[in-house]
Structures are given as structure tokens and as C-alpha cells.
Specification:
Number of strands: 5
Strand order of the largest sheet: 3-2-1-4-5
Largest sheet: 5 strands, mixed
CATH class: Alpha Beta
Shape: globular
Structural class: alpha/beta
Length: 198
């Protein structure tokens, strides 16, 4: 995709992607990355298909070889208020607006950001068709994982260091035992019912 956009005259291409949409707890996090045209980042892929060590290694390479990298996030109360799709878009807008360099065009993974006037290319499976989107997915994933590890120190009973806020069996068991924490998404299935009966 980046090659095609360069052929059309675009030089500053930003990719953006988010992680954490399906979690029961924690923020949704998006990253925006402008890859350096002459410093390739080899081996990037959808962050979900990479091992933990590969993600960390690529994360460092992306930070070193990119023209600009930024992160945006939206917390659980805001997700509950505006819904997860709008929160994901808002996280992406925040990440893009924090880039130190203004992109000429955006490449996104199957969404369109109505709040931005920049040209946008929305790709199905964008993280496997665009280097910049794949890089953004890695940055967002590593950043969010570190963030959830920090929440583990505050709420160890939910085991966020291992489940990252996803609805694993041990996470659901902890919810049954302790109830939700302040960073749980109360509008999500399995949690909104608790609000009804509290």
C-alpha cells in the first residue's frame, strides 16, 4: 500500500491501528506511525500473529526507524459513555493529532475517521497489507500490555499482567469473586448485568 501511495505522490504516510476493543477492562489504545521511507522495518505483521519477544524487538526497531510515533487512548468510563467503536476511533484521532509530523495521508484498518479531513485509505486486513498499519498495531499492543501490567500492581486479584483485561476464565472467576474494579467496562456483556443487579 505504501508503494502505491508513493506512486501517487504521497510522501508522508501514517498508519494507525488500535488494540483492546474486546477487553473487559482497561482502555482502548491506538498508535499512529509514520515509517521512514529509507529505513525499512522488516518483519512487521499483525501484532496478534507475533510472539511477545518479536513484538518487543520490532517495537524498539519501529521507534528507532520511524519519522514519528504517537499513542492515544480512551479510558473505560468514556468507552461506556460513547461505545467501543467510537472510543476506538477517538483513540486513533488522538494518536494522529499527537504526531510530531503532519501526515499527508492515513492508512487505517477497516475504519474511517469522520473527524479528520486528511485523505484516508481504509483497508480490510490493513495490518497485513500496510507496513505502517502493522507497525501501529505493534506499538499499540506493546504500549497497552505495559499499561495493563501496571494496573496489575494496583488490582492484582484480576491477573491483568497475564490476561491484559480480556475475558479469560481466570479473569471472569475474579470478577465473580471480587466484582468489577474502577477500570472495568461496565457497558460490556457480563458487566452491565452486574450494574442492573447491584
Amino acid at each position: 500500500m505504501e508503494r502505491r501511495l508513493c506512486e501517487r505522490g504521497f510522501r508522508v504516510i501514517a498508519g494507525t491501528d488500535e488494540v483492546g476493543r474486546g477487553c473487559l477492562a482497561g482502555p482502548v489504545v491506538a498508535a499512529a506511525v509514520i515509517i521512514h521511507p529509507s529505513l525499512p522495518v522488516l518483519g512487521v505483521d499483525d501484532s496478534k500473529r507475533l510472539s511477545y519477544s518479536a513484538r518487543l524487538s520490532l517495537f524498539r526497531l519501529i521507534l528507532r526507524n520511524s519519522l514519528a510515533v504517537s499513542v492515544g487512548s480512551v479510558d473505560a468510563p468514556t468507552i461506556d459513555r460513547i461505545n467501543i467503536l467510537e472510543a476506538s476511533k477517538l483513540a486513533m484521532v488522538r494518536a494522529i493529532n499527537q504526531l510530531e509530523i503532519r501526515p499527508e495521508v492515513l492508512v487505517l484498518d477497516a475504519v474511517f475517521l469522520e473527524k479528520l479531513t486528511l485523505p484516508q485509505v481504509s483497508l480490510i486486513k490493513g495490518d497485513s497489507r500496510s507496513v505502517a498499519v502493522a507497525a501501529a498495531s505493534i506499538v499499540a499492543k506493546v504500549y497497552r500490555d505495559f499499561l495493563m501490567e501496571s494496573y496489575h500492581g494496583r488490582y492484582p486479584q484480576y491477573d491483568f499482567a497475564r490476561n491484559r483485561g480480556y475475558g479469560t476464565e481466570n479473569h471472569r472467576n475474579a470478577l465473580n469473586q471480587y466484582g468489577p474494579s474502577p477500570i472495568h467496562r461496565m457497558s460490556f456483556e457480563g458487566l452491565c448485568e452486574r450494574r442492573l443487579f447491584d
